[in-house]
Amino acid sequence: MKHFHISTLTSKKSAYDYFAGLRCLTNNTFPDEVPDRYRELLQMSRIWNHLTMVRQSGQAHHIDTLLTHRRPGSLTVRCPACPEVTFNVDQAVVDAAKVAETHKYTLFLSVDGNFRLQRKNKNTDPDDVALNNGNGYFVPSEPYKKYQEVVRKSGPEEAATCSHLRASRMQNIAKFKNAAVSGVVAFQCARHGFYLPQSIVDLIKGEAFCFTDFALCYVLLELMLLHWILLSYDIWCQYQVNLLKRFRQWFPGPIADQIPKIRGAIPKMHIENHVIACMHLYSFTYLPYSGETWGENIEGGWAEQNQSAGSTKEMNDGHRHDALDDIFGYWNWSKLISMNKTLSRMYKACLQTLEIREANFASLTDMQPEDIVKQWEGMDISPVMVDGAVVSVYEARITGGPPTMNKALQALVDESKRVEEEDSEVIWLINSGINLQERQVAIAAQTNGKTKLSKDIQEWKTKQVLMFPSLSTVSSSGQEAGEEEIETVTLSLPSSFNSKDRDRLGLKHAASIERTLREGQAHDALAELRLAIKTVNANIHFKRQNIFGQRQVTRAEQHLRSLQAEKKVAMDKYCRAYNALLRLGHSPTDKNLQPLEESMLWGKNMTERHKKGNSRLVEPWFWHTGRPSTQTPEEENAWSLESKYSLDVL
């Protein structure tokens, strides 16, 4: 039994294959004549494995009487290096710790979903129960089932807003034909890769927040005495939005009170496919007291555990939990016995690189003007929300940089306050006209809304003629357009005319306003394009890794086509703005806003591992921020200084 136990844990070999080998060893010429004891092997090995966990965990020797702070009956192998109050650190030490010591007494956690460790939807033994009964790495089954029944009635899952989160739509497509359990969510210590006790739950329909909440609740039960927790999750930006609200609803009391002490982060590889705001808010690179944590260790664990998926997906519910508990326990044990060598090696490497980094930092500091260094040292490095946008000291924000349309509009309005009052009306007219053009494009693919758009256009044209009487003859041709052709009505914006006609019609000043707004529209479109490309890349990577079978692949391809269409929509929006800018006098040789073709709608997939030749690929121009145009000399110097110091640091 011990040989079979070790063999299955190290090689993930199934019991069927192991028993077939035993029959061949007994009689290699006529293995079929060897008595079939396969079923007996399954039954006895399961009991053996459970008793082994009871003995090795110390439960057979009443270890709970010595470690009273832990939940009773635990059969798990725990991380000895992570802070555990009353085990490897005293409560008085934690209570007296200063903020500068946060990194010493922070428990770093990782959580992630795995969609390979499924269980098939098949006839199972209703009397089968887990021998570990929630004392291993899975949460107790009965409370979890009751919780699922309650939360299902509470309403739909929260919608995703970040590009990386929209990959969850692909997960829903993958759902996972004939799977009673579509995967698991698990917690590890992010620094050392140990699975936590009672930290794993089964997934029913994807990585829903309510499932992760239940696992987090059980994790927090043993962490009441800690002051600091840092949780790494590849969808933290969305998961944290209503986290406290959900805990107060489903886990009120002391557990919910632990949520405010949790800081969140996104693993360093996953965050490359998030929006810029996520990077400033949740990147380990910018989080104080996080050291060299990268948050991706849990992915390595999945690569090992997935080898057992072929066997465990066929098991009964209780048997599967016992088998996976055993596999997770062996993973933790392997980490434990190699920890001394691993930490020693990493510590020695750290000492070598520390000297180099300190010398480089001191050298860079000496190279910079003293007043600039003092200015940087006095900055608050915490990102803040300003007018709905994330502002971080790590992001270059130079006055006069590439504008958004809203910023361009605000700048024009502010400027109009210092000149004639009619300017604000012209700004409103041009801005509304551009928005009406975008509505015309959107309405072309719809059947509803044309009446409202027609009315808005007629009202806008009336105000346009009052403001620019010279356009009365030009606008009259489209004045009575019907609803059926409302998307083709010309709005006679300054960009609709050449330079000579604009001068004749008195639209020169209006043209300068439109040009400013069009530049903002173009940068908005490029931001939407970059987001769409990142979303497509994330979904393509997920499809390759997790979706199999003709039906699921077909549905995934349909979803990918809809995402690909979003890239085309963003490109068309940019091209409309760019073509209008060319007619308004924009230089065709400008490096910040260039022609955009459909062949350019790509970017390196940051969710995949680096491939040979990737470094030689040159991404399209819109991925790289160019020097802003129309800068004052002071702004030019500030931009050059920021760029120079950023390159020095890199």
Write up this protein.
A hairpin with a 2-residue loop joins strand 8 and strand 9. Helix content is 50%, strand content 6%. It has 650 residues and is of the alpha/beta class. The C terminus is likely disordered.
Q: Order of strands across the widest beta sheet?
A: 5-4-1-6-7
Main β-sheet, in a few words?
5 strands, mixed
Q: Based on DSSP secondary structure assignment, what is the total number of beta strands?
A: 9
Task: Tell me roughly what share of residues is in helical segments.
Answer: 40-55%
Mean pLDDT: 85
- Give the CA-CA distance, first to last residue: 56 Å
Shape: elongated
Report the radius of gyration as a whole number of Å: 31 Å
Q: Short description, anyone?
A:
With 650 residues, the chain is an alpha/beta fold. It has helices spanning 2-11, 15-26, 38-56, 91-96, 141-152, 167-173, 209-220, 236-239, 243-250, 276-282, 297-305, 309-312, 317-367, 370-377, 405-416, 422-443, 450-467, 472-475, 499-505, 508-546, 550-583, 633-649; strands at 106-114, 119-120, 179-181, 183-189, 201-203, 228-233, 262-265, 384-386, 389-391.
